[in-house]
Design brief:
- The complex is a heterodimer of chains A (about 120) and B (about 600).
- Chain A is built from four helices and four strands; from the N terminus they run H-E-H-H-E-E-E-H.
- The mean pLDDT of chain A is about 90.
- Chain A starts with a helix and ends in a 13-residue tail after the last helix.
- With about 120 residues, chain A is of the alpha+beta class.
- The longest helix of chain A has 15 residues.
- Chain A has a single domain, classed as Glutaredoxin, CATH 3.40.30.10.
- Chain B is an alpha/beta fold and about 600 residues long.
- Chain B contains 25 helices and 19 strands.
- In chain B, the strands form six sheets. In chain B, strands 12-11-15-13-14 form a five-stranded mixed sheet.
- Chain B is globular, with a radius of gyration of 27 Å.
- Classes of the chains: A alpha+beta (about 120), B alpha/beta (about 600).
- The interface between A and B is large, with 36 and 37 residues.
Chain lengths: ~120, ~600
């Protein structure tokens, strides 16, 4: 038999998954280039790391989507981060390790990791 | 955690258009691409846009794919799920605006809807109790059991202004208070899921899409009136709904949300299913209870009312599925939230099942007081094929037809009654100029005659006589006197039938007689059916000037009724013609007319 506390725990754990199922225009958008060029350069691993990291930190305010090729195939994997109402920040040549840092510094602490951005290269 | 959810409708509508195969194909393709840890496929309840099924939504993008075919699945998986490129070509085109993809909530079908009873339908997996719990499921029961007295629960429901969604519109809180006031060793909570009106499928969709909300609301009702046992009476013709209810009841037992000492309190409540064998009369409350008791489903006289002497002679409340679907939201969000929506005497929202001559056949939920025009033209996409709206039928066999002149009446319980129809369970059948109103009245009377249980004479014999008169009129043998006789008989049946079904059975005749009397007169006096439906009054003929003698009609006629030489005007032999209309469809020159 479940107690009220048990139900609350189920609620919190399942809600993160259900958050996917409605449109949230106020969320921070994280897009990962997942066309052939991206997949070849390791974008799948980058995307999965971002999803895992968001789950670990229980981030309810991010929407993580895959996107097609934006034309900079030599710089894949590419990750775009956009806070609502702000310009997007484009990260290039990403790796899972770099992605973890972006989540921690940019998403959680709202400070872009300049050295990974497209302008830094 | 999954990065993407693919929601596929598993309601009856989409299941019949093969959504089961789509789910299998999706799972196969997703596995083939190694995405099974990233993308989850969820079978949900009804999204509402049944006309465009099978329906599939991919989140987080919210891409709405309609009329999906099994052949499309590899492309959607490869392009969208693997590579992040939405397959625009296969999207619901109302959401595509040039290069932009609009949110589903901005499309005409969804923009005016407000989903309370259907809030979880098409959002959660109805076979997963955790998902229901995550949408604040069983929180209302928790609130009621830990912080409210039964009186407070009833007061809250009373204050909300909620009225029964099954047809009658009786105030739900009042009903509960009558049963609560009775002293008895046992009381019962029943749910009427014997949805039988032709064209109504909202209860089925709620049970298929969100079964736990009904269980939770029944437990709340049990607490409010002092009952420990509930029964759901559901049609056996709803196999998916029955299956999901079974799963839901088992899950709720496992979690201790049904059974003894719920949440460790001294409140116990259980729910059992009873399957109806398909008799329309068993949707009538006293017949329903008689059927649960194991007897032949026949109504019994009231009073005594069920709240005093109901199921097994004990105090009983009986509410409809949609009524229950509103309860938990009222408890969680408060009576004031609920009664801020709707009209003065009809609060909240109402689910309508749109059917007939309308572009978007499906399920919609709108605030009470929405006009027929908004529902039919804006949400429903209007009457297709450039035809003109003629009438809308609401309330099933107990309701009536609303003509175009009442297109702007705000729809609520009282307005519908004042224009000779009723809310009923919410079936809304749209008719265009090709519908014959006498024929419609005949259709509903045929239904009532079939379904009359036979216990009382006014219904058993009265509806049969009514039907005979309608048949006389549609075959061209009616007299003006018949019209008056019919009207008289209608009132006689209304006043003398035993149960609600008999008392309302003449409504389709009365309302069409009232609003479309000229059509009846045309059948009687001119021996013509203006809509060209009643076959016995139809005659097909060739317009000689237009006929080129191509012989196409003669070749398509199944009974050889058309003759004529090549390049000369043809003739139809009326004695052989079976009025199938095949010749008229085939003629390229508009040379064949009916009338």
């Amino acid at each position: 038999m479940k107690s009220m506390a048990d139900l609350q725990a189920i609620r919190e754990n399942t809600r993160l998954q259900l958050n996917l199922r409605h449109e949230s225009p106020d969320n921070i958008s994280i897009k990962v280039g997942l066309a052939t060029c991206g997949i070849n350069a390791g974008a799948r691993e980058v995307l999965n790391t971002i999803v895992e990291e968001a789950e670990k930190r229980k981030l309810e305010n991010v929407t993580i989507t895959a996107m097609g090729c934006i034309g900079l195939c030599q710089n894949e994997p590419i990750v775009e981060v956009q806070f609502p109402g702000q310009d997007k920040v484009t990260y290039v040549d990403m790796t899972p390790e770099k992605a973890v840092r972006v989540i921690e510094e940019h998403i959680v602490n709202n400070k872009a990791v300049d050295e990974y951005t497209i302008g830094a290269n | 955690m999954y990065r993407s959810n693919v929601l596929v409708c598993g309601g009856t509508g989409c299941t019949s258009s093969n959504s089961g195969e789509i789910i299998k194909a999706l799972e196969r393709e997703i596995k083939a691409k190694g995405l099974e840890k990233e993308v989850e496929v969820i079978k949900t309840g009804c999204f509402g846009l049944c006309a465009l099924g099978p329906i599939m939504i991919v989140y987080p993008e919210g891409s709405f794919y309609s009329m999906v075919k099994v052949e499309d699945i590899p492309e959607i998986v490869e392009e969208h799920l693997l590579k992040g490129r939405i397959v625009t070509r296969l999207l619901y085109q109302e959401t595509v605006d040039g290069d932009n993809i609009k949110s589903l909530n901005d499309t005409p079908f969804y923009a005016k809807q407000q989903r309370t009873a259907l809030r979880n339908c098409g959002v959660i997996n109805p076979e997963c109790i955790d998902e229901y719990i995550a949408m604040d499921g069983y929180k209302a029961l928790e609130k009621v059991l830990t912080s409210m007295t039964p009186e407070q629960v009833i007061d809250e429901i009373k204050a909300s202004g909620l009225r029964g969604r099954g047809g009658g519109g009786f105030p739900t809180g009042l009903k509960w208070s009558f049963a609560a006031a009775q002293q008895a060793d046992q009381k019962y909570v029943c749910c009427n899921a014997d949805e039988g009106d032709p064209g109504a499928f909202m209860d089925r969709s709620i049970l298929e899409g969100d079964p736990h909300t009904v269980l939770e609301a029944m437990a709340i009702a049990g607490y409010a009136i002092g009952s420990t046992q509930g029964y759901i009476y559901v049609r056996a013709e709803y196999p998916i709904a029955v299956e999901r209810l079974r799963i839901a009841i088992n899950q709720a037992h496992e979690y201790g949300l049904l059974g003894n000492n719920i949440f460790g309190t001294d409140f116990s409540f259980d729910v059992q299913l009873r399957l109806g064998a398909g008799a329309f009369v068993c949707g009538e409350e006293t017949a329903l209870m008689t059927s649960i008791e194991g007897n032949r489903g026949e109504p019994r006289p009231r009073p005594p009312f069920p709240a005093v002497k109901g199921l097994f002679q004990k105090p009983t409340i009986l509410n409809n599925v949609e009524t229950y679907a509103n309860i938990c939201q009222i408890i969680l969000k408060g009576a004031d939230w609920f009664n801020s929506v709707g009209t003065e005497k009809s609060k909240g929202t109402k689910v309508f099942a749109l059917g007939g001559k309308i572009a978007h056949t499906g399920l919609v939920e709108v605030p009470m007081g929405t006009t027929l025009r908004e529902i039919v033209d804006e949400i429903g996409g209007g009457v297709p094929n450039g035809k003109k709206f003629k009438a809308a039928q609401t309330g099933g066999p107990s309701g009536g037809c609303i003509p175009a002149e009442h297109f702007d009446v705000p729809i609520d319980y009282d307005n519908l009654i004042s224009i000779g129809s009723m809310m009923g369970s919410g079936g809304l059948i749209v008719m265009d100029e090709t519908t014959c109103m006498v024929d419609i009245a005949k259709f509903f009377l045929e239904f009532t005659v079939d379904e009359s249980c036979g216990k009382c004479t006014p219904c058993r014999i009265g509806t049969k006589r009514l039907l005979e008169m309608l048949e006389k009129i549609t075959s061209g043998n009616g007299t003006m006197e018949d019209l008056d006789k019919m009207e008289k008989l209608c009132y006689y049946i209304k006043e003398n039938a035993l149960c609600g079904l008999g008392q309302t059975a003449p409504n389709p005749v009365l309302s069409t007689l009232h609003f479309f009397r000229d059509e009846y007169v045309a059948h009687v006096k001119d021996k013509k059916c203006p809509a060209g439906v009643c076959k016995k009054l139809l005659q097909y003929s060739v317009v000689e000037d237009k006929c080129r003698g191509c012989t196409a009609c003669a070749r398509v006629c199944p009974v050889g009724a058309i003759s004529g030489k090549v390049k000369e005007p043809h003739k139809i032999d009326a004695t052989k013609c079976i009025k199938c209309g095949a010749c008229m469809e085939k003629c390229k020159f508009g040379a064949i007319v009916k009338g």
